[in-house]
Design goal:
Its main location: membrane. The longest helix has 27 residues. This protein has a five-stranded mixed β-sheet with strand order 7-8-9-11-10, with no helix packed on it. A four-stranded antiparallel β-sheet has the order 3-4-5-6, with no helix packed on it. A two-stranded antiparallel ribbon has the order 1-2. The protein folds into two domains: about 200 residues, Mannose-6-phosphate receptor binding domain (Cation-dependent Mannose-6-phosphate Receptor, Chain A), CATH 2.70.130; about 60 residues, no CATH class. By secondary structure, the protein is α+β, with helices and mostly antiparallel strands. The chain is elongated, with a radius of gyration of 35 Å. About 35% of the residues lie in helices and about 15% in strands. Bound molecules: 2-acetamido-2-deoxy-beta-D-glucopyranose (3 copies). One 2-acetamido-2-deoxy-beta-D-glucopyranose binds next to loops.
């Protein structure tokens, strides 16, 4: 019996946290990654711009997605991290309308919107470099369009974006993104700087929270007390039944005290409950019976307290 109890306890303590912790680390939350070289944990979710909540205005300076000046490219870029841009796209060139809400980076030129990548929430590490890429944007300008007699190639290339993320160690520094280069109007390189690209320790890696550790210690202490106390009362003091529980008299006294306090509180609260008035008027006949019982409780309590004072 005791063996079964012990093995079930061991089972309880071992299953929920310790074994799943290892599995969880493999399936990370979206937009998070652990560096393979330094074991630091990176969470880019805080720099993902979200549309303002219904009826609320976005925080000053945080309206819309992130912007990067195009300089000599002749267009400015609008980009979000790990999610689609906040702005609603209305006329994207060479991209199925189903994907317009998935576009994570785009630019506008001559009144047309060009997507340069669809959302991707899986950053990767290339050595020590944190990289996020978006693929599947608008079609790249194809060479075959210059020689229109050639059939368009089957695997048309789509605009792609690669963002290299750098750690901005000044915690007051703002996140920023700047345009580095575009190759053949097809592949776009950016450099992002952010305090969130510096990594940190992952809060969730600990299998048990400090509170959980404390709880386990308390549980073990209570078990040792109960089992050790039982063994002592049984073998040394030769007690049987409930009396073999350790410090039976003390616990029984505490139990009685708690019961009495409960009775006092409930009976005095019941007296002040306004809703009781209507009820008691209807059940006037029972009033005496109820009062009698309450008096009984109070008398018993006073007797108990007297007993305890005598002890
Ligand atoms: C890009 O943005 C800058 C200001 O941020 C503006 O002066 C410039 O005209 C924009 N360029 C294009 C092509 O829209
Ligand atoms: C596009 O977004 C929808 C939800 O907004 C999502 O269910 C779908 O998987 C996304 N598609 C791609 C290719 O990311
Ligand atoms: C783009 O990111 C995916 C994961 O999100 C990765 O598998 C792929 O190698 C990356 N491609 C490039 C060109 O960086």
């Amino acid at each position: 019996m005791k063996l079964a109890f012990f093995s079930s306890l061991v089972f309880l303590l071992s299953t929920p946290d310790f074994s799943t912790a290892a599995e969880e680390s493999k399936s990370l939350k979206p937009c998070t990654i652990r560096s393979p070289t330094t074991d630091r944990f990176f969470n880019l979710n805080p720099i993902r711009r979200e549309p303002p909540e219904e009826g609320k205005k976005a925080k000053e300076g945080e309206e819309g997605s992130w912007h990067a000046k195009g300089h000599d490219y002749g267009a400015n870029f609008t980009i979000n991290f790990c999610g689609p841009v906040v702005e609603e796209l209305t006329h994207v060139v060479d991209l199925s309308k189903d994907y317009w809400k998935n576009v994570s980076a785009f630019y506008e030129r001559d009144g047309e919107q060009y997507a340069i990548g669809l959302e991707n929430s899986e950053p990767v590490f290339r050595g020590r470099k944190l990289v996020l890429n978006y693929t599947g944007g608008s079609l790249c300008p194809s060479k075959s369009s210059l020689h229109s007699h050639e059939a368009p190639s089957e695997d048309e290339r789509r605009k792609t974006t690669v963002i290299s993320l750098l750690c901005e160690s000044d915690p007051l520094a703002k996140t920023s993104i700047s345009f580095v280069a575009a190759v053949d109007d097809c592949v776009y390189f950016f450099e992002g700087r952010s305090p969130f690209a510096c990594g940190g320790v992952e809060a969730e890696t600990q299998a048990l929270s400090p509170g959980g550790v404390f709880g386990v210690i308390v549980l073990i202490a209570v078990l040792v007390y109960l089992i050790g106390g039982c063994v002592y009362q049984r073998t040394v003091m030769h007690q049987r039944g409930w009396r073999q529980l350790p410090n039976y008299a003390m616990w029984a006294g505490i139990g009685r005290f708690v019961m009495d306090m409960f009775i006092i509180l409930t009976s005095s609260c019941a007296r002040f409950l306004p809703s009781r008035r209507g009820y008691s008027r209807v059940s006037l006949g029972h009033e005496n019976g109820r009062r009698g019982r309450r008096n009984d409780d109070e008398n018993r309590l006073i007797d108990n307290l007297d007993e305890e004072w005598d002890d």
